[in-house]
Write a structure and sequence with these properties.
Chain lengths: 362, 362
DNA sequence: TGTACCTTTGTGTGCGCACACGGATGATTT
DNA sequence: AAATCATCCGTGTGCGCACACAAAGGTACA
């Protein structure tokens, strides 16, 4: 026989106190029909009075339900920011394995109009219980969101947000603010208000991502407000013609030998870092985004000075947790979750990789 | 009747496959006696072959055990770094409430020799299942650790580490590295290698904490290696005589009007920030540690430029998680967990407070 | 007044696991 | 050969909850 009972409040206790069967209490808790008004009142009273908190683990165990989460991300290469997001999601799913959660990731081509909607439709056809998406443009994303809302499937946005589409939650960085912060740091590096070059990545004649544009806006805003004397150059690379990158830089620096400070708002700071390494130019001050392996290498070798990270692993993890808490634990969800803007240099990088590893290995 | 069974591997399956009773499987899993060698072999075989992962939530539910965690921290005021650590621990305990975990926090006086050992003894007398401690000096901590080891009670160190005492795990920041990193940032602020003043907090004739000393060492190491021309002044405040602080600064800046840049390795950067505010001196460049409310205020008002944070909330949370995973989930534990060294300024502070809030509210 | 149908209520079983208990088996003693 | 003891093994019950099903009560209509 068991003694030493837990002092948890159980359904049984409530039933006893209210003078009804456990079935009735159960029905009230789950808002199911089949309960008279009077019983309902009684039970709700006791429920509140005893501040009943169900044991969600026992609940999940008993319900024996399975959950399918779906995720829609941009197509990406192995070595990428998005990989870390996926790793974070997979890690979280692993943590919740006893709740029968499955994750299905599919991809869309962010440069092909219609791709998002097409993949979105396919995804919805599988009737997932919850959805995570990195939204495309508002127009592209709209139709998928409408279908989700119609079917009452909760969805969270990751990386970038479209407020008007009203997701359950959003996890990502404020690009504008991160550009603003980057400017503060860069302005410290740019002594005597020396000029700065902005390296950009162009796809089909326009900036490759919204993030890139928003960060640059934030950056320019800070410069405008605080050190308008800094002259800003722009240098464009073309996604489709990476073989020209070196020539582009060579020409630029020939024409502007006085420029000794640069920043890029995409994740490819290593293009510049590796070039400097190659031509053996020291002391060019450089900032960029995201802890890609090649960026980290440049950081450690000193060809990139600072990287701003946006915690992709945490983002992925948090999105899964969000759906989990909403669907299984039925908690309140915070709608906007901006990730911290973290500055990383040679001197503190190890402790980020450490946290990274920790997240991925346990 | 239930259909749609989970495809989890259950004890029953193992028993079926191995041709033994569930009781036997159970005994093998828990390493209990009462199993013949042959049965044990059989079960272990099947166990491995099927890669059995027990459902820890069901397990916790069935075992119905209670866990008492104890925590020993330095005495502190309400408005402090340690408060955030406590908040993090409380939050984590709340998350695990369905596992019957209780947390008991007690305090020692870090300035009174013998206090740690005394409080440690009291704590151990309550026979906790796991312990979290912010260690005092090695000598002071030793006796408590020996008792814990004897009783086989796992303990984790928080904030600072003593490797030789071999804790289950450590969560905290590398003070040396964080000083080193601080130097990199400060050297960017100190134009033309201008001089820098180090503000210190003295207690009974020596530095108030190990953290303070280690950070300063790291700081000096960077300066030595990278910009030895920067002249470093020191300015001491006395914990017991805070009323003299203003006079001390006044005298110093009168004697050294050229000093326009400072740093402190304790959490009281606001002493300087608020002084600058008071005498209405603008443009003094200042760095410090920890997101105390008064520091945040200085940051936002511009009297402190940068703060290095050490994620106290996460530290507290992680310590509880660590004990939880060790005792209940029986996972492998990573021994050293250095927290990221994060740089915070007016421009990115909001996103840290946000994360902070998130952690504390959900 | 009986039948059909809907609403309300109670009970029993199972989720995956832990653990107490009692029965079976074999070895050792008197 | 009976009694004692240790080791091994199977079963039953419960953790807190969800849900199917059956039973009971109520309302409406012929």
């Amino acid at each position: 026989m068991r003694e030493n009972k837990s002092e948890r409040i159980r359904i049984k206790d409530i039933a006893l106190k209210a003078g009804v069967s456990v079935g009735t209490v159960d029905r009230v808790i789950h808002g199911r029909s089949g309960v008279s008004e009077s019983s309902k009142k009684k039970v709700e009273e006791i429920l509140k009075q005893m501040n009943y908190q169900p044991n969600m683990y026992a609940s999940a165990l008993a319900s024996n339900k399975k959950y399918n989460f779906s995720c829609l991300l941009p197509l990406h290469t192995q070595e990428d920011y998005w990989m870390d997001i996926e790793a974070g999601m997979r890690h979280a799913v692993g943590m919740y394995k006893d709740f029968n959660i499955r994750l299905n990731i599919s991809y869309y081509d962010q440069y092909e109009s219609g791709s998002f909607a097409k993949e979105g439709k396919k995804m919805i056809a599988t009737m997932p219980d919850g959805v995570i998406m990195a939204p495309s443009s508002e127009d592209e994303t709209m139709s998928t969101v409408l279908q989700l809302k119609e079917k009452n499937i909760p969805f969270v946005f990751i990386d970038s947000n479209i407020r008007s589409l009203n997701p359950l939650s959003f996890y990502g960085q404020s690009s504008h603010s991160s550009g603003y912060f980057a400017a503060r740091i860069l302005s410290l590096m740019a002594e005597h208000n020396e000029p700065v070059v902005i390296f950009r990545l162009i796809y089909d004649g326009r900036l490759g991502s919204n993030q890139q544009r928003n960060r640059e806006e934030g950056f320019r805003e800070y410069i405008q407000n605080n050190c308008p004397d800094i002259k800003l150059y722009e240098l464009n690379f073309y996604v489709k013609n990476p073989e020209n990158n070196d020539k582009i830089m060579e020409d630029f620096f020939l024409a502007h030998p006085e420029v000794n400070c640069g920043i890029t708002f995409n994740s490819k700071a290593y293009i510049i870092g590796e070039y400097m390494q190659k031509i053996n130019r020291k002391g060019f001050k450089m900032m960029g985004y995201d802890l890609l392996r090649r960026n980290v290498k440049c950081l450690k070798e000193g060809t990139v000075d600072f990287i701003i990270a946006q915690q992709p692993t945490e983002q992925g993890q948090s999105c899964i947790e969000c759906l989990f808490e909403h669907l299984i634990l039925k908690k309140e969800i915070k709608a906007y979750n901006y990730m911290p803007i973290t500055l990383i240099s040679k001197e503190n990088i190890d402790f980020y990789l450490d946290a990274h590893l920790r997240t991925n290995n346990i």
